[in-house]
Design a protein that fits this description.
oxidoreductase activity, 13 helices, single chain, eight-stranded parallel barrel, Aryl-alcohol dehydrogenase-like predicted oxidoreductase, NAD(P)_OxRdtase_dom_sf, about 325 residues, about 15% strand, oxidoreductase, alpha/beta, TIM Barrel
Amino acid sequence: MTSETLRVPAVALGTWAWGDSGDAGEGYFGSRLTASGLREVVEKAQAGGFTVWDTAVVYGTGRSESVLARALKGYDRSEYQLSTKFTPQVAGDGDDPVADMLEQSLDRMGTEYVDLYWIHNPADVARWTPLLIPLLESGKIRHVGVSNHNMEEIALADQILGEAGFRVEAVQNHYSLLYRSSERAGVLDHCREHDVRFFSYMVLEQGALTGTYGPAHPLPEGSSRAAAYNGILPRLQTLTERMGAIGEDRGASAADVATAWAIAKGTTPIIGVTKVGYIDGLTRACGIELADEEIAELEALADATDVDTRGFWEREM
């Protein structure tokens, strides 16, 4: 009954920041994004084989989905995969809030189906998961994932879908050198053992792990990420400098090394892309093979920072 297996490139592309209005202080990242600039990002990504676009209703209350659809205009629907989310916390009060939210997403994105549809945050797994089944049966969604769910919630969602011949095919959690709770809780092992794709988000910790920022060059003041990360930048310096050195030997950046680490761990990183140059970095990251000793060293340095970058929306796994 299940449609063909979910197949995705080594890296997925995140459009969280595409929901920004572009005005300073509005939106999470304080980005300056233009339609023509994002179109260039799409063209370079698509040409490079990066064809999975991850968005959500709550990224700019639908704005990210609309902006993404415009940027993809002209491409055949078979040339890219759309990943978006049902967020229980903003569900409407109709008879079928999941179907309603999906319809709005389909409408904004100008498509008849979503390749990968997520339950965004855990709320009441037993309540929301069954509502995905008719959408899978109708073909409006091709594959199902769960985001920010712990092992117990993943297992329950999988059991509910399993009774109808479907399954949880993907898990999407915050996972980076600085935040490995999914690994420690056994979620990564579960995904490996059951052929479930693990998508890691915040791999670059919103820029704090790119090597671009440090005590002398903090994140842009007034943005939410500055509030979250500027205070810990001094503690990250040894780690980001080592990442930079590992990258330098390979003609790559610290950010590329962070991405390569996430790939080496068997995950599919979702990397936010707002500039054309970021796509070059993803191409480099996909070509980097980190040695086991390098992975162990980076993880030890990351543990030594003793920071907790758990998002306000997350619980410990």
